[in-house]
Amino acid sequence: MAANVTVFPHGPLKIEGEFRLVDGAGAAWDLSGRTQIALCRCGHSANKPFCDGTHGRVGFQAGEKAR
After folding, report:
1. pLDDT reported for residue 64
2. Domain at 7, CATH number
3. pTM, to two decimals
4. Closest to 15 (Cα-Cα) out of 66, 31, 67
5. Does residue 55 sit within a domain?
6. What range does the domain containing 6 cover?
7. What is the C-alpha to C-alpha distance for residues 67 and 25, in angstroms, rounded to an integer?
8. DSSP code per residue over 1-57
9. What does the mean pLDDT of the chain come to?
């Protein structure tokens, strides 16, 4: 499996490519063949672990840069 993860400043983690998403017990989410998802980083999404755009409304700030 190959995937690309993009860390958006003040936003979600976007995952693109071929990947699986599993919970802490190892159970996989049914992503219905999706090749792109956005994961919440702010902790305020009503649809965790997926991003629903709430980061913009709550003023989430995280601007990590690659080192």
Report:
1. 86
2. 3.40.5.90
3. 0.89
4. 31
5. yes
6. 1-19+35-62
7. 32
8. --EEEEE-TTS-EEEEES---B-TTSPBP--TT-SEEEE-SSS--TTTTB--SHHHH
9. 95
Distances (CA, A) of 66 to 8, 45, 63: 11, 25, 10
Label residues 44-54 b or e (16+ Cβ within 10 Å = b): ebeeeeebeeb
List Cβ<8 Å contacts ≥24 apart for 19-27. 21/49
Cβ-based neighbours of 34, under 8 Å, separated by 6 or more? none
User: What mean pLDDT is predicted for residues 24-45?
Assistant: 97
> Structurally, how many domains does the chain consist of?
1
More confident residue, 46 or 2: 46
